[in-house]
Design a protein that fits this description.
Elements lengths: L2 H18 L6 H20 L6 E2 L3 E2 H16 L8 H9 L18 H5 L1
Antiparallel strand pairs: 1-2
Helix pairs in contact: 2-3
């Protein structure tokens, strides 16, 4: 047996685990979802009837554009793009110094409370 085939067989579970860890979605699923989302977007933009409403299905753009886009986003595990400025502010913010908690002062009794 060829050594490259053995190496590829050994690396296949690692690649699948890395894909499950959120690095990249499976391309066999990603490509059709992307094509459906873009075809639905084109259909809504070009054909006026696709912007309408159906009594059984509801609002057409939701099903032609919205749901495929949410499925596409779900393949990336709902990650949002990071803003560069916000990420830099978090890293460069000075750390707070951990000081002991302040102690409470003893309550001084008022004049009417001392008489009792």
């Amino acid at each position: 047996m060829d050594r490259s085939a053995i190496t590829q067989n050994r690396l296949a579970p690692r690649r699948a685990a890395a894909r499950l860890a959120g690095q990249q979605p499976d391309p066999r699923v990603l490509r059709p979802i992307r094509q459906i989302a873009l075809a639905g977007l084109a259909l809504v933009l070009v054909w006026p009837a696709a912007r309408g409403y159906n009594a059984w299905l509801g609002w057409w753009p939701l099903w032609l554009v919205g749901m495929p886009m949410v499925a596409w986003w779900a393949l990336y595990r709902f990650r949002l793009p990071r803003l560069r400025a916000a990420a830099d502010d978090v890293r460069t913010a000075p750390r707070r110094r951990r000081l002991p908690q302040a102690r409470r002062r003893a309550v001084v009794a008022r004049g009417w409370a001392r008489a009792a």
